[in-house]
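Allow me, if you will, to draw on your knowledge of protein folds for a short while. I have a record of one protein: its chain in single-letter code and its fold written as discrete structure tokens. Kindly check, if you would, that the fold set down in the tokens agrees with what the sequence suggests. Thank you for your consideration; the sequence and its tokens are set out here:
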Amino acid sequence: MTNSPDDGSALPFIYVAVPAMDEAELLPRLLECIALQGYRSFKLVVCVNQPEAWHCDPQKSSICQSNAATLQLLHGWNKFQVEVIDRSSPGAGWVAKRHGVGWARKTIMDKIAREAAPGDIILSLDADTVFSPNYFLSVATAFSRNPDAVAMAVPYFHRKPDDLVAYRAILRYEIYMRHYLLNMIRIGSPYTFSALGSALACTVRAYKTIGGMSPKISGEDFYFLQKLRKYGPVLIWNDEHVYPEARFSDRVFFGTGPAMIKGDTGDWTSYPIYSAKSFNEIMETMLLFPVFYFKTLKTKVNRFLAKFFAEKDPWKPLRENHADLDHFMRACHEKLDGLRILQYLKAENSRDLKSDEQRLYEWMVEYYDAKEVNELNINWKKFSFAYASAEELEAIRTFLFAKEMEARFNSALE
């Protein structure tokens, strides 16, 4: 097995970062998946973690036992190199507010950054994720062929769970995720990525330059990718994909697991189908950035930013601090970043009287082949997320997945 791409250049070493809490059941599958990788220039670093107080909590005893079993499995593993960070044994667990998957990822990545070379890759995974034997090679090759890239948001596809309720929930969540990403690509935002901890990678150089990962109880992957994007390009296409588990989980405050739990109660208000009109308003403002270098015009987004930042003119400070147009426009995009865009979409969504179903259908027939949309065997006049069959939701997810992969691939050609 060669460690060079077609152009003959050397491929980077990969450090695989995996946080693990209560994963004794799924981790063996991940380890076997890694063992099948054809690309062998890697090292796995796992942080088995939990709050220290759980050792005294009878309701958490099963998690403590699971973590102990995980440690035993990892210490006995001999199919490839594994380094274990034990933050779960008695006396080693998290204390006070320092706990959660954010701290676990940061702990792993900080350790990797101290020992790795700048050009090495940190590949973030979760214990519930599987992928093909070519995955590591695909990531190493992508970074080698794109030397300016600082990170990658890997394409993903949640696997079908046995439980119908979980299946419906993950389909609804993916429809939200893919609709959002496709619109971000459409309007040309630099913050075009899906943030999943099981589907991201970055260079060690970039990790150290941005000051590492900010520890958060949840959502750390979104903020991490946003910081990386402000530093440099983030790849959104890869020849291989990852396939996370679709499962209900309350270990974090938001993300896939909590979205499924909340959605199971019928509450999808945190994950709506945003109006295409709101995305268009963001695009119109971004297209005016060259004009704002000379004069700020009135737009809905500008009014939102002025109120949010308590500034009469949100672009005036940037004009005063950047002497040329290129640096000014970069600063504009950093101000109207992924988080601000999401906040604007949420604010506008609260004023939109249309249903999620209506917004989704109108967007699909507006920006894609209406005939193709109408051939999904869905009665759009009566379609409801709450009462749709799993087959109907799967048809929409598959349609959006295909459009997303096409858009991601096209991004690699630009």
Remarks:
- The two ends are 31 Å apart (CA to CA).
- The mean pLDDT is 92.
